[in-house]
TrEMBL record:
The keyword Hydrolase applies. GO terms for biological process: carbohydrate metabolic process. One of its GO terms (molecular function) is beta-N-acetylhexosaminidase activity. Residues 75-324 form the Glycoside hydrolase family 20 catalytic domain. Residues 1-18 form the signal peptide. This is Glycosyl hydrolase family 20, catalytic domain. It comes from Parafilimonas terrae.
Length: 362
């Protein structure tokens, strides 16, 4: 017997499919530093009550060395998360079908201000610029152009160590993806490095991306990175922080097409997702603490998906709120509705709320 449905019912069904969260934005993400052990339960409450209700489906936790690593205990933070803590976070995300992705900064961000990160503190031989000494008091700009240190990507011992860490944290997260950071890499191909000096910086960057991607692929894991080093900062006028001044941008044509690009712009809604999609790369737009910018970026991403060619449409992957202070500070601001330092609504928690309100309304 043929069942004929009213035309209005078919139209409603079609509209529902077209406006479903996954069709509007396949990735609806949230990225934040991993909570300290004492804040895990409070953060799980946030997952249950705030992320899940907003249909967030991707959570990136920046771990670095804040985990009790067994493979390299010399790199583990003494107050890092335990396997039991991670298990609780994994269970909470699995309950709500949230893809939990760990991040460990690779290549760049091996120091911050006047403090050397764990990797270079324990293995100083991996330093790309050992001649640059950490200052007692950090200031920018400085004579050494020091922002963050990098490890030397051509050092013969570095990848054995970092890949042990990557594998262990991915196993703990039961992760199918891994975020390698790789943003704001200012030290690369240093002329004083006996291995990297004089080499093409774009090739060095691309080779490191390929090496990490190939390693992850052995266990069917996917690589995510920040996108700033793949944008020409001078030609676009975007500058040397959200884009590259040291010629790494040419690596965009050298990296595997299955790498996911997290495209961060915080003060303007730059249209660089189109650039990445035209290169055949999947791209996620990442705001921070400007609600008005995040709302524009969300509308742009949805419009890109609606108006792009069928070849480019799948590459516009979605939106991801980023938070650049501790999980505890964010939770305090979110639940207390704390204004920004200037008394405005320019906060990461208000940005998160406004961005997901737009997504929900659509």
């Amino acid at each position: 017997m043929l069942l004929l449905l009213p035309a209005c019912f078919l139209l409603l069904s079609l509209n529902a499919q077209q406006s479903s969260p996954d069709s509007l934005l396949p990735v609806r993400g949230f990225c934040i530093a991993a909570p300290a052990p004492k804040d895990v339960d409070r953060f799980i409450k946030f997952i249950n009550e705030e992320l899940a209700t907003r249909k967030v489906n991707t959570l990136i936790l920046r771990i670095d060395y804040d985990y009790q690593y067994k493979s390299h205990p010399e790199l583990a933070d003494s107050n890092g998360l335990s396997k039991k803590d991670i298990d609780k976070l994994v269970a909470a995300c699995r309950k709500h079908n949230i893809d939990l992705i760990p991040q460990v900064n690779l290549l760049g961000h091996q120091s911050w201000a006047n403090k050397t990160g764990k990797l270079l503190a324990v293995y100083p031989e991996f330093d790309e610029t050992p001649n640059v000494k950490m200052p007692e008091q950090y200031k920018w700009p400085n004579a050494d152009n020091l922002y963050c240190k990098s490890y030397c990507p051509l050092h013969p011992g570095v990848h054995k160590i970092v890949f042990d860490i990557v594998d262990e944290i991915c196993d703990a997260f039961q992760a199918t993806s891994f975020h390698a950071g790789m943003d704001e890499v200012f030290y690369l191909g240093d002329k004083q490095c006996p291995r990297c000096g004089g080499r093409d910086k774009a090739e060095l960057f691309a080779n490191e991306v390929r090496l990490i991607n190939d390693h992850l692929a052995q266990k069917n894991r996917r690589l995510w990175i920040w996108g700033d080093r793949l944008i020409d900062g001078k030609t676009t006028g975007i500058g040397g922080w959200e884009a590259s001044y040291n010629n790494t941008y040419r690596a965009v044509d050298m990296i595997p097409k299955d790498v996911v690009i997290c495209d961060w712009h915080y003060e303007r809604a730059d249209k660089t997702p189109v650039y990445f999609a035209m290169k055949g790369l999947n791209v996620i737009t990442c705001p921070w603490n400007r609600p008005a910018v995040a709302v524009q970026q969300t509308n742009d991403m949805i419009n890109f998906r609606k108006t792009a060619t069928k070849e480019m449409q799948p590459h516009f992957y979605g939106m991801m709120q980023t938070v650049w202070n501790s999980a505890a500070s964010f939770l305090d601001g979110f639940y207390n509705k704390t204004p920004g330092r200037d008394g405005s609504n320019n906060t990461d928690w208000k940005c998160f709320v406004d961005m997901y309100n737009i997504i929900d309304s659509l």
